Amino acid sequence: MAVGEHDQLGLVNRFRVKVMPENRSLGSWAKVDGLDVTWEVPDYRAGDQGNFRWLFPGKTTYKNVSLQRTAVAKDTKSVKEWLEENSTKFKPSEITITLLDAHGDPVMDWTCKNSVVLKWSVAGFDAGASKVALETLEFSHRGFLDDETAG
Question: What is the pTM of this model?
Answer without folding.
Answer: 0.81
